[in-house]
Design goal:
Elements lengths: L2 E12 L2 E12 L3 E6 L5 H8 L7 E6 L2 E3 L4 H6 L2 E4 L11 H6 L5 E2 L2 E2 L1 H14 L15 H14 L4 E5 L7 H16 L3 E5 L3 H7 L2 E6 L2 E7 L5 H9 L17 E11 L5 E11 L2 E6 L6 H9 L6 E6 L2 E2 L5 H7 L1 E4 L3 H5 L6 H5 L10 E2 L2 E2 L1 H14 L17 H14 L4 E5 L7 H16 L3 E5 L3 H7 L2 E6 L2 E7 L5 H8 L10
Parallel strand pairs: 3-10, 3-11, 6-9, 9-10, 15-22, 15-23, 18-21, 21-22
Antiparallel strand pairs: 1-2, 1-4, 4-5, 7-8, 11-12, 13-14, 13-16, 16-17, 19-20, 23-24
Helix pairs in contact: 13-14
The structure holds adenosine-5'-triphosphate (ATP).
Length: about 500
């Protein structure tokens, strides 16, 4: 059999956890091979070993039939293995070309030959349909484009084996379609791809075979054409997963959040949100649907106090909180699951325990007269970790950075829901989560609403907004286009409104 890469009987332990236990993955030349598994199942660890970031404790790696020792990422590069990481590794004030050549700069005498490098970047970009400007700065291009720079980095180094670690988690639906086309082009040009993703739809759309791992162990490799999404989900979680969200009828209570004529500037100092009004009641989930960058971040940051407002008012249970500090807003009952779990969700170098009390450490029983009560903090953190099935080697003592992306996300969601807030703002809450965890998180959001709390859900996943929300507010270009009832609307109507076609109602 023509395998370009074979990872055979691989084992890797971290303190307190066997991340990979006898895992085998064989990559055929010219295939897209999906790697599927729950959060913390050991996917990134396995790929980390193929990319030379970790060494296996046991097992062998072969390339084209011969055993190789991939002792560091430079060796991986030399062997033609490239990786696009979950969190990009780019220097923001460098240009695309500067990022791509970093570490392997072509020289003319003593100076770096940027011109010839930019020319090569341009050629590669055209050949693979990537549409990258070789002189654009990273900070000025979209996340989707930044990812293409990561792809170009691999191509520039002549990689033939391309590893994509959850590449679509940060992309918009259009960017996802583009990436799928790019992958197909790469295969046509003779590359082989390993794709880590939680999205079964994408596996169906682009992968040939799929290897499933659960809690570090290999469950099997299947032919994607012959396997349904439900079967793959079951292999991965070990039980059938329900994709539908079960909900009782809403029992609307008082108005919790009342936004009137809100205007907020965006990062470019123009109005990112204009004259925006919305109400969220106790006992309902209001979803915000829109293409990324249409005012969602400005809205969330204005409510949570992360961004100054230009005009209008924000009321929580009738009280004007427009000028409250962030802490005052938390104390008033607002909780926030942020979009960027690393930048705003966690202090990555703190333990999980400390991360779980970031908003409450200064309160009883966690502190008394300025002294921390470690036992109370441990107990509180352990409860969240258990309830939300946050998996890591050393539980609350684990450093946040060492947790898998999905487990970091579950911990943040647990921390915010545990506050039992009057208003829970959930931004992309299930980004990077496996289907089993998504099912659980959706249940918990619905539970908040059933307990008479208000939930504001912001998501780029239309399916999620449609399934979880009671009402859907659609934004386009910073304006409220309309509000629709989730029970009676359909994807077509919401899609049109997202494109700016007015519909629905402007009131509650
Ligand atoms: N450097 C590390 N130190 C300690 N533990 C680690 C380290 N890297 C990973 N782990 C642990 O190994 C397990 C597997 O993590 P890994 O990141 O491989 O999971 P994953 O399948 O990629 O998950 P996700 O889908 O959430 O990204 C997790 O329990 C994680 O906490």
């Amino acid at each position: 059999m023509d395998y370009v890469v074979e990872m055979l009987n691989i084992r890797k332990e971290f303190p307190g956890i066997v991340a990979n236990d006898d895992v085998t993955l064989q990559l055929k030349r010219g295939e897209v091979h999906a790697l599927l598994g729950e959060n913390g199942a050991g996917k990134s660890t396995l790929m980390g070993m193929l990319f030379g970031m970790y060494q296996p404790d046991k097992g062998t790696i072969k390339m084209n039939g011969s055993e190789v020792k991939i002792t560091n990422p430079n060796v991986a590069n030399d062997l033609g293995i490239g990786m696009v990481h979950q969190h990009f590794k780019l220097v923001h004030n460098f240009t695309t070309t500067e990022n791509i050549i970093l570490g392997i700069e072509p020289k003319k005498g003593l100076t770096v030959d940027i011109k010839s490098a930019a020319q090569k970047v341009d050629e590669l970009s055209k050949r693979y349909g990537l549409n990258i400007d070789p002189y654009a700065k990273i900070e000025n291009i979209s996340v989707g484009m930044q990812q293409r720079v990561e792809i170009l980095k691999m191509l520039y180094r002549n990689a033939d084996i391309l590893i994509f670690d959850e590449p679509t988690a940060v992309l918009t639906p259009q960017e996802i379609n583009d990436l799928i086309e790019i992958m197909k082009n790469l295969i046509k040009e003779g590359k082989s791809i390993i794709l880590i993703t939680h999205k079964l739809k994408e596996i169906k759309a682009v992968a040939d075979r799929c290897t499933v791992i659960r809690r570090g162990k290999c469950i099997g490799t299947v032919d994607v054409k012959l396997t349904t999404e439900a079967d793959m989900a079951k292999m991965m979680v070990g039980r059938p997963v329900s994709f539908a969200v079960a909900k009782k009828d809403t029992m609307l209570g008082e108005t919790i959040l009342k936004i009137e004529k809100l205007s907020v500037q965006n990062n470019k100092k123009v109005l990112g949100l204009k004259d925006f009004s919305l109400e969220v009641h106790a006992g309902e989930i209001v979803g915000i649907a829109g293409v990324e960058g249409n005012g969602q971040s400005e809205l969330v940051e204005a409510i949570t106090g992360l961004r100054k407002i230009e005009g209008g008012t924000i009321r929580l249970k009738g009280k004007d909180i427009s000028n409250y500090s962030i802490r005052e807003r938390i104390n008033a009952g607002i909780a926030h699951i942020p979009e960027d779990r690393h930048k705003r969700g966690l202090v990555l170098d703190y333990t999980m325990e400390d991360n779980m009390v970031l908003e409450v450490y200064n309160k009883k029983p966690f502190s008394n007269y300025g002294l921390l009560n470690r036992q109370a903090i441990t107990d509180y953190a352990n409860k969240i970790i258990k309830d939300f099935d946050v998996r890591s080697g050393e539980g609350g003592a684990s450093i946040a950075r060492s947790l898998s992306g999905g487990n970091q996300q579950k911990a943040i969601i647990g921390r915010e829901i545990e506050l039992d807030p009057e208003l829970l703002i959930a931004v992309q809450p299930t980004r990077g989560l496996d289907v089993g965890s998504i099912e659980y998180i959706h249940k918990r959001l619905v539970e908040q609403r059933d307990n008479g709390k208000a939930v504001l859900l912001v998501s780029l996943e239309l399916d999620e907004v449609m399934n979880v929300s009671d009402r859907i507010a659609i934004v386009n270009n910073g304006e409220l286009i309309g509000i629709v009832d989730a029970k009676t609307t359909n994807e077509n109507e919401v899609g049109l409104m997202m494109a700016g076609v007015k519909g629905g109602s402007k009131n509650e």
